[in-house]
Amino acid sequence: MAEIIMGGVSIFLFKTGSRNQLNNNRKDGNFSAWYEQLFGMKLPHQDTVYDILSEIPEDELENIETDAISGLFEQKFLRKYRLLDKYYTVAIDATGVVSYDKPHCEHCLTKTSKKGKVTYYHYVLEAKLVTNDGHAISLAREWIDNPAGKYEKQDCERTAFVRLAQKLKKNIRVYRFASLRTACILTKTRLKSAKRMVGNLYLCCKTTH
After folding, report:
1. Nearest CA among 104, 93, 79, 109 for reference residue 175
2. Which pLDDT score is estimated for 112?
3. Short-list 143, 195, 190, CA closest to 164
C-alpha cells in the first residue's frame, strides 16, 4: 500500500501534469532505478494507483495522513519550527478545486453572476503547518459542500472552519497550535469556539485605504 500512496504523491512531487507523463517517465530505466533508490520502493503504473485509490474511502486516506503527521510530531522532527519555541504555526485557508457550467453533483456550491449565469463549484478548507523556511505540510481539510436535498443556506467557510477545528483537535490533540486565519470568516461566537479548539488564533486582516 505504501507503494500505491507514494505513486499517487509522485505525480505532484515531480509535477508531471498527468498520469500518462509519469508512466512515460517510468519506462525510462534510469528514472525507475533512481526512484527505487531514492524512496526504497518501486513506482507503480499510474492506472493501478488510480484504480486502487479511487476505491478507498476519503476518511481512510486521511487516517494514513494523520498517522504520518503524528509520526513527525512524535519524533520531534518539527519542534525546531515552533513559534516562540512553543507553538506550531498552522495556516488555514480555502481554495477552489473545480468549477462547472452544469451541476457536477448534489453537493455543489453555486454562485450567480450579474448576468444570471450560474456556476457550480467545489471549495476545500485546508489546514497546513507552515515553517519559517517555506515548508507547508497538510494536517487536515474540510470540504465546503452543500447538503443533499433542500437546504436554507449554502455551506460556507465559516461553518467549515468549525468542523476543521474539531478535526484538528481530535486527530492532533497533544500539541499547541497558533492558527493563522482570515478574519472575515469568523463571527464572535465562532472566534471563541475556534480559540477553544485550536489554541491561540492570529487573524490576518486586509488593510483598507
Report:
1. 79
2. 92
3. 143
Domains delineated in the chain: 2-53 (no CATH), 77-204 (3.30.420)
Query: What's the pLDDT score for residue 198?
Result: 55
Radius of gyration, CA atoms only, the chain: 20
What is the C-alpha to C-alpha distance for residues 103 and 120, in angstroms, rounded to an integer?
6
Closest CA to 200 of 170, 180, 173: 180
Mean pLDDT for back-to-back runs of 10 residues, the chain (209 residues): 86 86 89 90 92 87 83 84 82 88 90 92 90 86 88 86 84 60 55 58 53
Contact assessment for residue 151 and residue 112, using Cβ atoms and an 8 Å cutoff: no
Is 46:20 a contact under the CB 8 Å cutoff? Answer: yes
- Supply 92's cell numbers: 488555514
Question: CA–CA separation, 182 vs 160, rounded Å?
Answer: 13
Whole-number Å distance between alpha carbons of 158 and 94:
10
pLDDT of res. 124: 93
Q: What DSSP string describes 65-114? A: HHHHHHHHHHTTTTGGG-BTTTBEEEEEEEEEEEEESS--STT-EEEE-T
pTM: 0.70
Rounded Cα gap, residues 10 and 151, in angstroms: 39
* pLDDT at residue number 208: 54
CB 6 within 8 A of CB 41: yes
